[in-house]
Amino acid sequence: NVLVVIVLLKKLQVPEAKIVTIIESLQAPTGRMEMIPYQENIIVVDYAHTPDAVSNIISAFQEITHHHLYTVLGCGGNRDKTKRPIMAKIATDLSTNVIFTSDNPRNEEPKEIIHDMVSTLDNSNYEIEENRAIAISRGIQMCEKNDILLVLGKGHEAYQLIKGNKIHFSDAEIIQDLIK
Q: Which residue from 35, 65, 76, 136 puts its CA 20 to 30 A from 155's CA?
């Protein structure tokens, strides 16, 4: 996206110094690679909710020097069930440890969704915590020094969809409250 902005500004003959100023002033959208510093660790909130997106974000953070890379991940209910085990395998293959949790279960039972995710896993580097706030708390507790915690799936969404109810829930708010 930034490259498109640069190309367009160059086409409009905006001076290079002005382009640099514009780019430096840009802020990432909420919930998209949103980094929250925590002690000597990095916590990242991202909307990644497809196998490709989960693979890309975890792989990108593997390239950063770190001690451990932890991932909190859930899959949405009433959506493509075939991607659930794929996302779980990617997360466990690429992370030190994964906490599988709830993510907009809609009209499905969270434990059924999580079961779909883990039932064919060969990896054992995961735990299950249905309650997303507790899962995030557990992920933060795992962080020691120079660790990365990825909280994936909801990103900018400030709600959970549960049995027809839209309940206020923001990963970033939960994290900020927990690290205070």
A: 65
